[in-house]
Amino acid sequence: MKKTVMKKKGRILGGALNAALKLLLIFLIAYPFIWMVFTSFKPYKETTIYPPTLLPTNWTTEGYVKALEMVDVATFLKNSLIVSLTVLVLQYLVIVPAAYAFARCKFRFKGFFFGIVLLGFMIPQQVTFIPIYLMFSKAGLLPKFFRLSPTRLESSCSGSILCRSRRRLLRRPDWMMRES
């Protein structure tokens, strides 16, 4: 009887210690971000005082106002949206047919071509930045932001692998596919 009570107390103590360590870790990770947010609401003079304080004595948004006056955020947001949506559409135009072909169709050298797609995983994206930049520079495609979209098509290999894997997991009989 005493052993089970001791085990329960040990589990409760272990669970409490586990939770306390997790909370400490969360606090250590989140504290710099909390400090950054509170500091963004301080006037400049207050950010340079010693010893520093966490909470501002005079709350102000002058830093945000200055930043928004210096930078055209709406244009940046519009450019990001256009590039992201273009990449998304172009990738899915490549990913879905490729995944379907690898999952459903039988063709010669299927394994070889799939191996080439897998090679795309082995090349880090950072290695391709300079050659792609030089290629686009020589072709005169650099000045416009929407022309950056084709550079992101290289990550289509991961999408086609994931779509192919999902297709295999939910494999339907071929007669069902023909009937639908």
Any overview of this molecule?
The chain is mostly helical. The chain contains 8 helices and no strands. Helix 4 crosses helix 7 (156-169). The chain is flat, with a radius of gyration of 27 Å. It starts with a helix and ends with a helix.
Q: How is the biggest beta sheet arranged? A: none
Q: What is the number of helices? A: 8
Please provide the ordered H/E string of secondary-structure elements.
Answer: HHHHHHHH
Mean pLDDT: 77
Bin the helical content. over 70%
Q: How far is the N terminus from the C terminus?
A: 64 Å
Looking at the structure, what is the overall shape? Answer: flat
Radius of gyration: 27 Å
- Work out the number of β strands: 0
Strand % is under 5%
Give the low-confidence spans. none
Structural class: mainly alpha
Précis, in short:
The protein is 73% helix and 0% strand.
Overview features:
about 180 residues; mainly alpha; 8 helices; flat
Write the layout of secondary structure elements.
Blueprint: H1 2-40, H2 44-47, H3 62-70, H4 73-104, H5 110-122, H6 125-138, H7 156-169, H8 174-179
